[in-house]
Amino acid sequence: MIQFSKPNVEQFFQTYRISTFAISQDESRLVFSSTLNGKFNLWAMDIGGETGYPYPLTYNDQMCGFIKLDPQGRHILTAFDRDGDENYQMHALRWNGGEPQPLFAGIPPEEKHHFLHLSEDGKRIYYSTNRENPNFLNSRVFDLESGEDRLLIEGKGTVTVICAVSQDEKRFAFVKEYANTHYVSYIQLEDGQEICLTPSPDEVHTSGGVQFLDGDNVIFATDYDSEFAYMAHYDIKERTFKRLCEIDSETVVMLKYHKDSRTVYIVTEKGVQDHLYAYALDTGELKAIPLPVDILEQIVVARSGNLYMLGRGAAKPYNIYRFDGSRWTMLTQNVVTGLTETDLIVPEVITYRSFDGMEIEALLFRAKDETANGYTVFWPHGGPQAAERKQFRSMFQYIIAEGYNIFCPNFRGSTGYGSSFAKLVEQDWGEGPRKDCLAAMDWLFEQGISSRDRLFVMGGSYGGYMTLLLAGRNPEYFKAAIDICGVSNLFTFYHSVPEDWKPIMGQWLGDPERDRERFIKDSPITYLDKMVNPLLIIQGANDPRVVKAESDQLVEELRAKGRDVEYIVFDDEGHGIMRKDNEKIAYARMVEFMNRCRQAKIQVEK
Ligand SMILES: CC(=O)N[C@@H](C)C(=O)N[C@@H](C)C(=O)N[C@@H](C)C(=O)O
Predict the structure, then answer these.
(1) What is the model's pTM?
(2) In the structure, what pLDDT confidence band is assigned to residue 566 with cuts at 50, 70 and 90?
(3) ipTM of this complex > 0.90?
(4) Which residues line ligand 1 (CB under 6 A)?
C-alpha cells in the first residue's frame, strides 16, 4: 500500500479561525469573520440550500469586533481594529461587501466601540465607547439616519457598559465591572432611576448576560450567593429577584431568549467542556441539547427558532452549525486537510493533587506511539482567569504530530470550577498557581510521562508570564521555555495595560505601592540570574494588553548576560498570533527550537 509521509506544519494550518458570525433575518445568508484566506476578512455564504460556497466581502485583512446585518438587507455593520491593536471602530459595508466606510469621521486611532444592539428597524445603534471617558467608558445611541449620537449612560467609578435594550428602547441594562469575578447589572428606567438586579450590590458577585423578556421582566446569569452562576429573573414592576434555573456544578455563561416559543437557550461551562440546554419558561422544563462540539463560542437564535452556533472541539476546528430542533448541520466545512478526526489527538481529562491537597483538573494530550519522542510540553494557560479547555488549536495538533505530549493544568484561578476557585489567583499571580504547576510537573514525573530532562514549558500571555516565572524560579524542573507575549515585570505591566482595565487592576493583580514586595517577588524579571534555560520569546508589536516593552526589557537583560534567547516580533500582530503566515513561521520555529534544545546538553543545577 502507499505510505503517506507524516503531516507537516502546512497541513495543520489549512484550517481557519472563525471569530464571529451573523445570519440574515430570512436565514438565507451567513456572514462570518475568518482567516479563510490567511488573514481575517469578512466572508458570506448563501445557505438557503443545504450548504453554500464562501465568498469574500472584505479584503482589508483586519479582525472585526462584531457583525450585524441590516434587517432590510441594505448594509452590514461591523467594526475593525488595526493589526491587533483592539481599538475596534464601527464601519458600514455594502450588502455585497467592498471598501468599509467608517461610521464616525475623523476619530483618533485610540477610540474604540463595543457594539451592543441594532434597533428592530435598523436605524439606531447602541454601543459603549472610550470616547470622552477612557477609564470608565460611556454608552451611547447613534441614529444612522439623522447622524445624532446621544449619551445614554455615563460610566462613573468603574467600567460601565450597556448590556441590553428593551424592545421599546425605553429601558436599558448596564453592567458595572469591578473585577473579572465581580460585576453587577442594573436597569436604567425611563426617569433615569437605576435598579440593581441582585439583592445587594455590595456583596461580591457577578451578574450579566441580561435579556429582556418584555419591558418589565428580565432574565440574567448570576452567582449571587452561589459558587456557580445560575439563571435568575427580575420583575421590574414588583422589584423581585428570583432564582429560576440552576444546574449542578455548571456555570451559566450565556442566555438567549426566543420570544415566540418562550424558550431560553442556556449555555453552561463545566471544567473543560460546555453544555447547551433549552429551558421552557412556562413549564420550567429543562432539556439538554447534545452538541457536535466541546466548546460553544457564540449562538444566535433566529426568528424561526433555528439555532446557529459557532463552536470547536479538541479535534474539531471552528465551524458554524445550524440546529433545526432535531439535528445539527455543519455549514462551514472547516477540517484539517487530508486528515480525519481519528488522525488528531483528543486529550485525556485527569486530576492531580496539588501542594496543599487541592484537586486540579488538567488535559493530557499523548503523542501517538509511532511518533512519540518522549518529550512533553507543559502549557500553563492565559487569562489567568480562563481555563484550557477542549478547544481545537492547530499549534497543539502540529506539536503532537511532531512527537510531543502536551499537558495543560487548570491551576487555581481557572474558570469553570466555581467562583471561589477563580478568585484564588487574584492578587496572587505567582505563588499558588506556580506551585500548582510544580505539583503537576511532579505528577508527570511520578507517572513516568516525563522527566526534568524531557520537559519544555510554553505559554501565552499569563501563560507566558508563568513560563517566565518558572524559568526564573524553578529552572531545574525543565529543559527550555517558550514565552508568547508574556508579562515579565508586574510594575511595568500594571502601568501599560489598556486604560479601561485600570479600574480592575487593584482587585485582579494588586497595587504596585501597597504590594511592592509581592510585585518584586512575583515578577519574572527579578530572577534574571537564575533564568539560565534557553528561551524563545514571541511577541506581537501592536499588543495592547501585554505590550512589546514587556518582552523587549527581558530580552535585553538576558542578552546582556549572554543567555541563549531567540526573539521573534511580528509587526502586524497584537495579543497572540492570528495570521496564518505568521502562525506557520512561529510554530515551525517553536518545534525547531525544541528539537535543537533536545540535542543540546543543558546544564541546570538539579
Ligand atoms: C474584563 C476584562 O477584559 N478583563 C481583563 C483584565 C482580562 O481579564 N483580560 C484577560 C482576558 C487578558 O487578556 N489577560 C491577559 C494577561 C492574558 O493572559 O491573556
Answers:
(1) 0.96
(2) very high
(3) yes
(4) 180, 382-383, 385, 461-462, 501, 504, 508, 545-546
